[in-house]
Design a protein that fits this description.
Elements lengths: L7 E2 L8 E4 L2 E4 L10 H5 L2 E9 L2 E2 L2 H14 L8 H14 L8 E8 L18 E8 L1 E2 L1 H6 L44
């Protein structure tokens, strides 16, 4: 069976990592958020997966750009500037002594935060955004490194259904003629 890119070698050092929960470094076994947290309750938040390469975050600006754009799209205030969030990421890596390591994966999660009641309306949020940073040692399986991965893509690319032209959608039960631009044109006749 083919191995996926998300499979990794278990590393016992991960049991002793410190997780950043709203800036506090907490032992892994004690790292928790409230059941009233928007992320737990509604999946209301954004996240990024980052990697360390030669002691630095790979593609950090692109990851932060996507994180802040995602938060903006759902009208969520992260509550930290990019510089402040980068410092928090650095503190988490340095607090775990991971700066000189490769094979470190960081899960950065930001949720809309604690709600006063299990309700979707963002007006019931009663605290700033929850920011959790989980760093772990994650090296891919040797067979993935040795053999690489196989990628399959499809040749059809479609946009979001909300922006598609409804006249181009036909079902098998449709009896309508295709638009004139899609009707077969007669070929040359032989005479």
């Amino acid at each position: 069976m083919a191995k996926g890119t998300q499979e990794f070698i278990a590393d016992p050092r991960n049991e002793a990592i410190l997780v950043s929960v709203n800036g506090a470094m907490v032992p892994r076994a004690e790292a928790m958020v409230s059941v009233f947290d928007s992320g737990f309750m509604l999946g209301d938040g954004v996240w990024e997966g980052l990697r360390l390469h030669k002691g630095r975050f790979a593609f950090l600006e692109a990851h932060l750009g996507r994180l802040y754009e995602g938060a903006k799209a759902i009208m969520m205030d992260i509550g930290l500037t990019r510089e402040e969030l980068t410092r928090r990421l650095d503190e988490t890596i340095d607090g775990n002594g991971m700066r000189g390591s490769d094979g470190v994966h960081i899960r950065l999660m930001v949720t809309r935060s604690i709600r006063s009641t299990p309700y979707q309306d963002p007006r019931v949020v009663i605290s700033p955004a929850t920011i959790v940073i989980i760093p772990e040692y994650k090296h891919p399986l040797p067979e993935v490194i040795e053999h690489g991965i196989t990628l399959f893509t499809v040749h059809v690319r479609r946009g979001d259904p909300a922006v598609q032209d409804p006249s181009s959608i036909r079902t098998s039960s449709s009896t309508a003629s295709p638009p004139a631009s899609r009707r077969p044109r007669p070929g040359p006749t032989k005479g």
